[in-house]
């Protein structure tokens, strides 16, 4: 019985235990879930908590947390990639010893994805370092690539880590997922606490499975109303960032709720959470629901336990949007909060369009672009680069029929309208990469992109200009050669 676990000695053990003592998770869950005594008998009053506070409370084995508390959190998944993995491994070895073993070989997920299809020797070496480490440590989830000449002969290779984590079932409601990448917040779409950490912290997690985290306060974004069929969740998040600025959510949790959010697919929820870091957010969360559970079916065999904000939970601020009234937006150079309506930028001539990345390179992003191309019956006017996030996305482009197309696939539609052939899956030119990276901006071009950042130099050239947009707006712009509101075609 759970109540027998709540003996005074057990609860005091919970309170006083040192961070390195392992307490079986099952027991902790029972203890937290057990009925509370009435305040009249204990003198204590339980304060309502937000989702983020509750996840961190469970992960730190506390009954109650308040924003600002610093707690040792048990990590469910640590993800690293080719850019930060080697540095994190170096710190782990230096601090824990050359022969040290990682805390859990099944909770570390290593995903080469950033600088893959390049002849840059140092970039290639980074992947070799990951491979050696994974062999040495017998890491269960290593999505390796050995033959760079053809990604398809590497069955383990996935591509962009944030999309691969979801597709491979590593994202689970109620858990804590850390990663050495700022867009790790994407996984908050699954109702979990997910955030990016630095190499030093990752080195520590590799050795202990724990991290000291400060509990963030939560901003709540209530998005209600029917989503017009010319909007995607990229428009919603650009709208929000435009409103609160790139510093508006610094070290805060962003919780997304409302009827619109409930209607979004998992991939669209991922887009929403992916860009919380562009507002400075610590993490983003969407409450798990039937859409989440359905997506997870067959992807994970591990039990998970969703949590939800209490009715009386305290939010730092609440923002409300009537989504039915919103219009397609872009973020103009050189900041994700430099918001404008797409139609206000109709005179901006562009040189190229890029569809890809963890933000805008998922199957549904390409489906959305294909829908616009199909509706237009026109050819693209500027080079249009397509970089599927993962190997699975690439396969979807060649196999799934686009609704209303009479059975055509995305790849067929893209070819008919004159796009470049879909490239090998990776982070590609979202963050520039080595000089030989496919679709890198090596000249000062103007690009409409479905990616997440438009800082100077982000896609390669310091004087390049990037307009961040939804896949609808990106496709519409490719068809005209100007920044274009997709309503012109939809
Ligand atoms: C390379 C990595 C550290 C970086 C990040 O953390 O976000 C990259 O993925 C990006 O999008 O800028």
TrEMBL record:
Residues 54-340, 344-481 form the Aconitase/3-isopropylmalate dehydratase large subunit alpha/beta/alpha domain. Its EC number is 4.2.1.33. One of its GO terms (molecular function) is 3-isopropylmalate dehydratase activity. Keywords: 4Fe-4S, Iron, Iron-sulfur, Lyase, Metal-binding. The keyword Iron applies. Gene3D superfamilies: Aconitase, domain 3 (3.30.499.10). Pfam families: Aconitase (PF00330). It is an enzyme of class 4 (lyase). GO terms for biological process: L-leucine biosynthetic process. This is 3-isopropylmalate dehydratase large subunit, chloroplastic isoform C. It comes from Glycine soja (Wild soybean).
């Amino acid at each position: 019985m759970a109540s027998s676990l709540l003996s005074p000695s057990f609860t005091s053990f919970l309170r006083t235990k040192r961070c390195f003592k392992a307490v079986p998770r099952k027991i902790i869950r029972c203890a937290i879930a057990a009925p509370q005594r009435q305040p009249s008998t204990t003198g204590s009053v339980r304060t309502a908590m937000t989702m983020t506070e509750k996840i961190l409370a469970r992960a730190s084995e506390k009954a109650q947390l308040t924003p600002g508390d610093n707690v040792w959190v048990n990590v469910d998944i640590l993800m690293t990639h080719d850019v930060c993995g080697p540095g994190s491994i170096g710190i782990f070895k230096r601090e824990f010893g050359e022969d040290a073993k990682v805390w859990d070989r099944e909770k570390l997920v290593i995903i080469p994805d950033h600088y893959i299809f390049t002849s840059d020797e140092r970039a290639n070496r980074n992947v070799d370092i990951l491979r050696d480490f994974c062999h040495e440590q017998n890491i269960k989830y290593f999505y390796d690539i050995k033959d760079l000449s053809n990604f398809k002969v590497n069955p383990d290779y996935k591509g962009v880590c944030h999309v691969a984590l979801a597709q491979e079932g590593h994202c689970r409601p109620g858990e804590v997922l850390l990663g050495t990448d700022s867009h790790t917040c994407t996984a908050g779409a699954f109702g979990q606490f997910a955030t990016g950490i630095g190499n030093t912290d990752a080195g520590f997690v590799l050795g202990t499975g724990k991290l000291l985290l400060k509990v963030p306060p939560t901003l709540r974004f209530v998005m209600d109303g029917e989503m017009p069929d010319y909007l995607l969740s990229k428009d919603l998040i650009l709208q929000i960032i435009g409103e609160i600025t790139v510093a508006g959510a610094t070290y805060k949790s962003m919780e997304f709720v409302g009827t619109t959010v409930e209607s979004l697919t998992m991939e669209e929820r991922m887009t929403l959470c992916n860009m919380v870091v562009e507002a400075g957010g610590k993490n983003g969360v969407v409450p798990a629901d039937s859409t989440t559970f359905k997506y997870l079916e067959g992807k994970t065999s591990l039990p998970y336990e969703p949590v939800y904000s209490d009715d009386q939970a305290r939010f730092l601020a609440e923002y409300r949007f009537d989504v039915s009234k919103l219009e397609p937006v872009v973020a103009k150079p050189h900041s994700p909060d430099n918001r404008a309506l797409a139609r206000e930028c109709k005179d901006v001539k562009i040189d190229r369009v890029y569809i890809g990345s963890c933000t805008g390179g998922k199957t549904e992003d390409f489906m959305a672009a294909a829908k616009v191309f199909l509706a237009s019956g026109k050819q693209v006017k500027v080079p249009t680069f397509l970089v599927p996030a993962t190997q699975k996305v690439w396969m979807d482009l060649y196999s799934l029929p686009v609704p209303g197309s009479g059975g055509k696939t995305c790849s067929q539609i893209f070819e008919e309208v004159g796009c470049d052939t879909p490239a090998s899956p990776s982070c590609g030119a979202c963050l520039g990469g080595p000089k030989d990276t496919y679709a890198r901006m090596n000249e000062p071009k103007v690009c409409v992109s479905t990616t997440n950042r438009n800082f100077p130099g982000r896609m390669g050239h310091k004087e390049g200009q990037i307009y961040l947009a939804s896949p609808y707006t990106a496709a519409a712009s490719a068809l005209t050669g100007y920044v274009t509101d997709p309503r012109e075609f939809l």
